[in-house]
Amino acid sequence: MKTDTPQPIHLADYAPVPYLIDSVDLDFRLDPQDTVVRSRLTLRPNPARSDRGAALVLDGERITLQSLALDGTVLQPGQYRVEAQSLTIMEVPQRAFTLEMVTRCNPSANTELSGLYVSGGVFCTQCEAEGFRRITYFHDRPDVMARYTVRIEAEREQVPVLLSNGNPREDGVIGGTTRHYAVWDDPFPKPSYLFALVAGDLGSVHDTFTTASGRDVALGIYVLKGKEDRCAWAMDSLKASMRWDEQRFGREYDLDVFNIVAVPDFNMGAMENKGLNVFNDKYILANPETATDADYVNIEAIIAHEYFHNWTGNRITCRDWFQLCLKEGLTVFRDQEFTSDLRSRAVKRIADVKTLRARQFPEDNGPLAHPPRPAAYIEINNFYTPTVYEKGAEICRMMLTLIGEQAFRKAMDLYFERHDGEAATVEQFVQCMAEASGRNLAQFFTWYTQAGTPTLTAEGQYDAATRQYTLTLEQKVKPTPGQAEKQPLHIPLGIGLVGPDGADMPLDLDGVGTLNTPLIEMTEQRQSFRFNNVAKRPVLSLNRGFSAPVMLEANLPTADELFLMGHDSDSFNRWEAGQRLGRNLVLAAYRGTATAADVSAYAAALKKIIDDAATDDAFKALMLLLPSESEIAAAIGADVDTDKVHAARDGLRRAIARQLAKELDDIWVRTAEPGPYRPDPASTARRALRQTALALMVMGNPAHGIKAALAEFDAAHNMSAEIGALGALVQIDCPEREAALDQFHARHAHEHLLVDKWLLLNAQAQGPDAAARITRLTQHPDFKWTTPNKVYALLSGFVGANPAGFNAEDGSGFRVIADAILKIDPVNPQVASRLATGFRSCKLLNSSRKSAAQAELERILAEPSLSRDVFEIVSKIAAS
Ligand code: PHE
Ligand code: ZN
């Protein structure tokens, strides 16, 4: 156990800093082992503080202070104090003053990838959340916004490209030396977490964008040399994002340049640094030979996400890190809308809900549950969570649903106008929503402060004599860590009463009249809604479009679910009905109560959907996917045997595949690639259906399916087809898959992003020796403990995509992951801690599994030099 237990930081303790920093001039002498940073700050007492005379305490970490001067006078050792995490100057003037300092750091030794580090030979920074303090001493917190100028100096030959935030001001060679320099100016005040510097021997592609008001913006994408021909999709996506934000939100870009850099070593997906976004290269590089359809879609969405941060995050930032969902939830919501406008809205909604259920619901339902706006944290890096991002986005969407498109846009305009240039709070954002709409959102605010996913039970009663339909709803949230008592939430619920012909009947709500918008609002714990003039017994379609992130228990008879699956005018709820039916069938198989008739009825309903020429291929593909094993486990709730879950789900997939054998073959023939690869929505949808069909074919008739998969694998001329074929093969333990995996590696070993895909496919491989395979691969020369993408592919891939392997009853899966956490923690605590979250659902397991997992958690906690990151996650899970 750690000797000094890390202490939490509380939202309630927020206080403004005693001294503001107005401007920062930085001068970097770049050297891989010994970079020198000169910093000149102008400071002044903060008018928001009534006290005077406080010491100046700046954050700093892993840097060496070389010299320090205040208003031009060098400070003597007794006038300041350097500690591991801070620099304190005991006395500073109570008026504007300047501080000059020189610090040194070692970018090559920076394996945490926070602060200034080297990736692929390129200097690169990552400052969110608290990395700037590893570059120089500063108030490294988002409510201190300053103007930055940055001068970078380096060797001309080795480091020809010198980039930072804002606009380029000047560059040149340093006479008589082999060195050169560049100066960048960012006119917009920003918090330190948005600072960025990138320098190295980079290739680039360039384009321009003309804003709505006619200003030209120079666009650049920088990549490691030789990868320039894989940037076209990212560039198109960037231009589409810029246009969309103008059209949908009236937001124009504000600098003369917008640059993006792709690096191979990055902890997260990407980072929205002002005017200089830095990306994990897997979310930039794409061509048909190396990127799958999913990659194309992700690149488009992440480029958009980072670009949209320019207004939601950068121009208006967060007052403190508790407000993280102010920028992240809102920006995820914006990127979801972007994708919905460009592609299929229905398919995007389903995809987002699948992500929510796969990542956020399990978090909300376990020891790591926290509100979208948490009240305390030990390590802020642990709060870049599905709850902050995805549930945060759902909350924005619910406000849109409640107040309507027009008021929502008005509220956003008000928010941009009122808070531009400020560090804001969630309260201020919601206040804009309330003011613009005239709605009271006080109760609604609880969504931000209360953890846990509500369960909503619905009971409908139809009275043919009075032609009334009464809907009784009840909401409940289970206690979560630190929140035993739960308040009722304000829940917007899309609703339809579907008549026997499949058409929606009018909604004549008692006491209100005919509803203009098919929406009811629940505010109490238990509430009834009576609808008048309901001509026929309706089938209830509730939470249409997934209007609220709740778990709905409607308890409809199977016949009604089958009816909705075929007829609901809300396509989300057609899919949802299919999911509920599928889930119930897997649960029945798990419990040994499944009947062949139920399975047949389900398969027959799927057949109708497949046969319907008017239905989108992507939607068909989604209908053919059963809820995930982790969703099933959560539905079982306790004492789960994950092998049985896997067997039950696969058993149902086999049965469906057998009944739909002919349809699957037809799909296979119809969806063959007609020409060169194109990433457009229709082609993407066709391939999604093709791959889903292939995966089922392998289940239903292995000999036949394997043959088709191998033929596809050999003939594939795009990565989507290749991965689709391999993905189908790794589902079952067969000799063909080993040969194909080897062949994939032989084909693509030179391409690091494809090695990651190979690791992920291996991680997914089903079979009794899954953990042994993982151990073996961690020793493979292509695996690197220090590269986050490798760890995420192999180890997070195993935890997330191979629940039967990770949760193996003999504890082998837990052991391999615990070993990895202990190995990675000293190298990169953020990556180790993300891996540790994989244990969050282990309390659902049966006792042998649970105790095997607990033993591993305790083994981790026994490590004396554990990071705060891993300590916070593992101690919370172990204590639950
Ligand atoms: N702010 C980034 C995003 O959401 C994510 C990120 C967080 C990246 C922390 C790096 C470090 O787009
Ligand atoms: Zn973001």
Structure description:
Strand 20 and strand 21 form a beta hairpin. Helix 9 packs antiparallel against helix 10 and helix 15 packs parallel to helix 17. The protein is built from 26 helices and 33 strands. The two termini are 17 Å apart. The chain is α+β, with helices and mostly antiparallel strands and 880 residues long. The strands form eight sheets. It has an eight-stranded mixed sheet, with no helix packed on it. A six-stranded mixed sheet has the order 29-28-31-26-25-33, with no helix packed on it. Strands 17-18-19-21-20 form a five-stranded mixed sheet, with helices on one face. The chain binds phenylalanine and zinc ion. Zinc ion binds next to helix 3.
Task: Summarize the helices and strands and which ones pair or pack.
Elements: E1 9-10, E2 19-29, E3 35-45, E4 56-59, E5 64-70, E6 73-74, E7 80-83, E8 86-89, E9 97-105, E10 115-119, E11 122-126, E12 146-155, E13 161-164, E14 167-173, E15 179-190, E16 197-200, E17 202-210, E18 216-224, H1 232-249, E19 257-263, E20 270-271, E21 276-280, H2 293-308, E22 317-318, H3 324-342, H4 345-364, E23 376-377, H5 386-419, E24 423-424, H6 426-437, H7 446-449, E25 455-463, E26 468-476, E27 491-498, E28 508-509, E29 513-514, E30 519-522, E31 526-532, E32 539-542, E33 551-553, H8 558-567, H9 571-591, H10 596-611, H11 617-623, H12 629-636, H13 642-659, H14 661-670, H15 681-700, H16 702-715, H17 719-729, H18 735-748, H19 752-764, H20 770-778, H21 788-801, H22 803-806, H23 812-824, H24 829-836, H25 847-861, H26 868-878
Helix pairs in contact: 1-2, 2-3, 3-4, 3-5, 4-5, 5-6, 8-9, 9-10, 9-13, 10-13, 11-15, 13-15, 14-15, 15-16, 15-17, 16-17, 18-19, 19-20, 19-21, 23-24, 23-25, 24-26, 25-26
The chain binds phenylalanine and zinc ion.
Phenylalanine (PHE) binds next to strand 20 and helix 2.
